[in-house]
Design brief:
With 393 residues, the chain is an alpha+beta fold. Helix content is 59%, strand content 10%. A four-stranded antiparallel β-sheet has the order 4-5-1-6. A two-stranded antiparallel sheet has the order 2-3. The protein is rod-shaped, with a radius of gyration of 47 Å.
């Protein structure tokens, strides 16, 4: 009972001691609190910012439909055997991937800080030190993929979040705006250059095919003219023989010549033996054939008498009427790519940037106040104990 009473007396004594020293405790606690506030005020504000980045929507990509659905310039998409569209010359996945690459390279942020950041503009150091400083600043920007989803056409749509650190929220917003504008313009120019390369490739291919068809036509005509000239010489000679012999019309014995293939382009014979008895057909028939051959390619006989001429001419006409380049230009003119003011490569809203203080100053002050009060209480108790020991001594 005595120990319990003693403990109770001791507890009351401690409380009494603390109450007697309340002003000292308050003073010490206030001093530490004020000191912590002063220190915190000297520390520049530091924030972690986050911004959500998303690809363009299907509605926004509709303005590229005329360009992307140009036949024969992009891979088609089928639903079963039905053509439902094309993968396109440009895609939001490519735009977003290009932006992600720019963020990972960090050059857009370095350039933006060089233009807008007073710390960089007023940097007093060597070029090497400046480059090191810019590199350190650029490392404050990180991009993380937050979600991936697959669409009906198999395309994977990626969204992401940009995380960065800054001491100036307004400056950070300006830097992001400038960096994103630079990335957007670079992506636009890159796509325009790729489309220009595509057009040059198509134009070169058309010219090559056209030249090839022209050469085939010229070769076919040249071969035709040589063989026709040879055959006409044979016919004229046989017609002259028939006239000298007085054979005007078909004679018995010419049966072996009936139905033979006299198409010169199919004749591979190097000897005139097969034509040696053509005179038996009579000079009237021979001279009429000569006249018909000479009329080929004239009047109603618009095409040369060459089996492959019609196909070659059709190929040449198809190449000459190819409209892919015109369709690309028309589609490009209708797309935002043509205008720096209208083009977007990704979606973001700087008004939605979330800034979180890296140091919660209020919590630091509360914690310091709590620790200060504990330290002050301990100090009062120790001082009271030392006074009592001196009195007892």
């Amino acid at each position: 009972m005595q120990d319990a009473t003693g403990d109770e007396i001791d507890l009351i004594e401690i409380i009494q001691t603390l109450w007697d020293g309340k002003w000292l405790i308050t003073a010490i606690t206030a001093a530490l609190t004020i000191l912590s506030v002063g220190v915190l005020l000297q520390i520049p504000p530091s924030f972690e910012g986050s911004l959500r980045i998303t690809p363009l929507s299907s509605q926004e990509m509709a303005s590229y439909q005329a360009l992307n659905n140009t036949p024969d310039i992009s891979e088609p998409i089928y639903a079963g055997e039905v053509l439902i569209g094309h993968k396109g010359v440009v895609s939001r996945q490519d735009f977003f991937a290009a932006f992600e690459e720019k963020v990972l390279q960090k050059l857009i942020f370095r350039a933006a800080h060089m233009r807008l950041d007073p710390e960089i503009n007023n940097f007093d150091g060597s070029r090497g030190e400046l480059a090191q400083k810019l590199s350190e600043i650029a490392q404050n920007y990180e991009f993380f993929r937050t979600s991936e989803s697959e669409e009906s056409d198999g395309a994977v749509v990626i969204t992401g979040e940009l995380i960065f650190h800054t001491n100036d929220r307004e400056l950070a917003s300006d830097i992001l705006e400038l960096a994103f504008a630079a990335a957007t313009e670079n992506i636009r120019l890159t796509n325009l250059e790729a489309i220009a390369d595509l057009k040059r490739s198509i134009e070169t291919g058309l010219q090559f095919e056209s030249d090839e068809v022209t050469r085939e036509i010229e070769n076919a005509l040249s071969t035709y003219e040589v063989k026709t000239a040879t055959y006409l010489a044979v016919l004229k000679e046989q017609a002259a023989i028939a006239r000298q012999l007085g054979i005007a019309d078909y004679q018995l014995g010419a049966a072996t010549q009936v139905g033979i293939d006299i198409s010169i382009e199919n004749d591979t014979s190097e000897t005139p033996s097969r034509y040696s008895t053509l005179y038996l057909r009579g000079y009237k028939a021979l001279e009429q054939e000569i006249a018909l051959i000479n009329a080929r390619g004239k009047g109603d006989a618009a095409y040369q008498f060459i089996p492959s001429y019609a196909q070659l001419f059709e190929r040449k006409k198809t190449l000459e009427t190819d409209r892919r380049l015109e369709r690309i230009d028309r589609g490009l003119a209708l797309s935002p790519l043509i205008s720096p003011e209208k083009f977007k490569a990704f979606n973001y809203d700087l008004k939605t940037v979330i800034f979180k203080p890296k140091i919660n100053k209020l919590l630091v002050v509360i914690f310091t106040t709590l620790i200060g009060s504990i330290i002050a209480a301990i100090f009062v108790l120790i001082r009271h104990s030392m006074v009592q020991r001196k009195q007892n001594a």
